[in-house]
What does this fold into?
Amino acid sequence: MDLFGDERADNPVSDNASPGREVPLAARMRPRTLDEYVGQEHLIGPGKLLRRAIEADRVGSVILYGPPGSGKTALAHVIASVTESRFVELSAVITNVAELKQIAADAGNRLRQTGRRTTLFLDEIHRFNKAQQDVLLPFVERGILTLIGATTYNPFFYINAALVSRSKILPLKPLDTEAVRTIVKRTLGDPERGLGAYRIKLLDEALEHILAVSEGDARKALNALEIASLSTPPGADGVVVVDRQAIEESIQRKAIVYDRDGDQHYDTASAFIKSMRGSDPDAALYWLAKMLEAGEDPRFIARRIVIAAAEDVGNADPRALSVATAAFQAVDFVGMPEAQIPLAQAVVYLATAPKSNASYMGISKAREAVQQEQVREVPIHLRDASYAGAKRLGHGEGYKYAHGFEGHIVEQEYVSGGERFYVPSDQGYERTIAERLEYWRAQLASRRGDDPPGGG
It folds into this structure.
């Protein structure tokens, strides 16, 4: 018995250690060793860094980031099976700060008095708010806890930057078809934890349907297999024949391939943005629907809409940014599923609005000038003259107050160089802006006695 905390379930790999049939099939079939683990070869293939770290029991703090059913929890349990540290498993859904502090206190005592480290596996870590994540930080920082976090959400958005910087971010990909096939066949042949004790014949058409609709989610595939196998009566020969219809009835909803750290995530988001930019509301709504169906965070979508409103519509329709910002606020205020309505309204508005990227190009050119040239000094007549002694430095001397001149414009140097960073387009309201700027320039030229712009 350890002095620090309940050691009755020391380093529990999972319920699959001695599985009862009341435990879901997907949980029973979790791999117990690295050799049983299927998929994620980019992380645990022969010679890969994570595999070597696991085998040497030197994993360190990591955040496992990937879509449902890709093996995050399974990988954590594989680590648990080989580590000599005390392994504690929690879910952020039901854990509170008091429990975290107690675990950390026990870990500190254990480390000081026995030298034994503590590994904390925290599933659904993205569900912790900033304050809860802050509780973990000092213990991870001092090495009292080794953190293994699992999340389906982008850790760079949902996990404190300090925790992210102290952890390896390990992106898991959706399992490919062959990996899911291997898992299904292994399950059918395993009499101890799987369905090998039953006489089950899975027809090829049923297996192919499982592979098609599970789309890289091993848990979804095994859940469907379990429901279909146990709900289909055996034939006269005692064999349970699982056909496509049985699988179709067991998988009621198609899984959407959408890995939040891979091509599907970025490609879909890219197609969404480019469809709005390309003025195709139908395509934009389709990609919006795909992201929503896949469980994408609506706040991520709303951020993309706000950016597109400024970058791609800009001052061709200044109201676009207001519509986009209102949609962003509505997401938090209304929540899903109703938030899809203001999101769709904003998407259609942006897709059908006149387009201009002049503001975006303007700030890009201005930043390039700042980065690549000697930074220009603020003209002395524009400098702050509000504090005591400023006038002795000449600050503000010669400044012309624009509202005191005809048309509320006056010629004076606002920045040296004279480049035009903002070049308005002829689209929508920006045509009016362009006309106004040209009018002002002509007025200032006439006051100087110069020819107006354009040589007229």
